[in-house]
Amino acid sequence: MSEGTGSVRATVLGAIAEAARTAPRGADPSGPLEDLGIDSLEFVSLVQMVEDRLGITLSDQDAAAVVSVEDLLALCATTVARADSPTPPL
Length: 90
Description:
The chain is an all-alpha fold. It contains four helices and no strands. α1 packs antiparallel against α2 and α1 crosses α4.
């Protein structure tokens, strides 16, 4: 699925707002997701929401390294870009 950087950002921020039940506008993007009230169970739901909306799969290892809004945005942007890159022929 092809998503522009702005679209990925809007999708991820929308999912965070849903998971946190609030708009993350005033939150520090480098601060922990926990500061938005997102605990470990809500984080699992958040990851599933983002995967479904962007049509991607985040590895458990990559997702486990996510601490902040910035981390999740960067991971999703990288994963979308990787998914959109053509695979070179063998």
